[in-house]
Structures are given as structure tokens and as C-alpha cells.
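Next comes a single protein record:
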Amino acid sequence: MKRIGLFSAMVLFICVGRVPAVELVGVHGSNTQYTTTMDVTISDKHYHLVLTGTALRQKFFFNVYTIGSYVLEGAAVHTAEELATIDQPKQLHLVLERDVAGSDIAEAFLIAIRQNYPMPYFNEEVNRLVEMMREIDFKKGDHIYLTHQPGIGLRCQVIGKGDTTIENPDFSRAVWSIYLGKNNIGEGIKKGLISRLR
């Protein structure tokens, strides 16, 4: 019996030893961590994304949210511009660091998008995104996923609170430009989100 127990323990140790550890990457100035990979499903197809970098959004020296950027594994992306414009599965993962009114989040997205794409560019798409954000009461710890779905559009998920798809793939470029475009919300954020690109 002791031999069987010892053998079982050895098998368990070997099996557990073969389970790959999930690597986490921190965000400077925050306790939030992001996995180095992310799996997404688009039209019943599974895609493996890899982390391109992380950053912290602050306002008046207060943390607002952290953000992790992911792109399809193996995608030919080396610069911020390529990441913003590439038509491959990619994702922005935001984690709220504080409670924020939906109207404030909506206004921030509206202003940031219009810095690179003034009216009338993407009027309908911007309105849909803003309307969704306004209806949500954001709390610390909420997760927002913005997923570019090639050939479909931008999926906007606030876990447990809202989920909609804006059916215009080109609109994703406007959202990514908030962080990676010429008129972005901070060069430190831009550098952080491409810090793992090679």
C-alpha cells in the first residue's frame, strides 16, 4: 500500500510539473497584472493572442485604469502604427482602478477618438460606443475588453454589464489610435503598450 501511495504521489508530481505556468506582467504604478497570452473566439474560430505591452492611465495623478494590449501570435507587428492598423485579431483589456461614472468614460472616449478622427468620421460608430458607456456604472475592478474582429467589427465588452459589436472593422483603428495614434492620450502609454514588440 505504501508503494502504491508513493507511486501515485510521483505520478501526480510529474503531471503537475508538466502544467505550464501562466506568466504575468505587472503595470508600473499598479497592482494589476496581465497574462502574456490571451485566447479569443471570433465566429467560432479560436485565436491565440500575445501581450504587446501594458500601461497605466492616470488623471490628475489618480489611477483611472490599466490597459493591456494583445495581438495575434505571429502577426508582423513592430511599431505602434502597425499595431493600430493591422487587420488581425487584437484586443485592448482595461481594468478600472477606481469607480468612474459612465458619462465620464463616454466623454473621455469621445474626446480621445476625435483627436485623430474629427467629425464626421465614424459618427454612427462613436455614438454607439458612447451610448453604451454612458449606461454603465463603472466600479473599481471592472474589466473592459475591446476586441477587433476582422471582417466583422469592434466588440465592446464590460464583463457582467454590457456587450455589443459595432459592425465596422475600420472603427477599430480609431479606438487603437486613442493610445497609439499621432494624437494619443500619452506617450508613456504608447511606449508601454508596444514595449514587448520586437
The CA atoms of residues 144 and 165 lie 13 Å apart. The first strand starts at residue 24 and ends at 26.
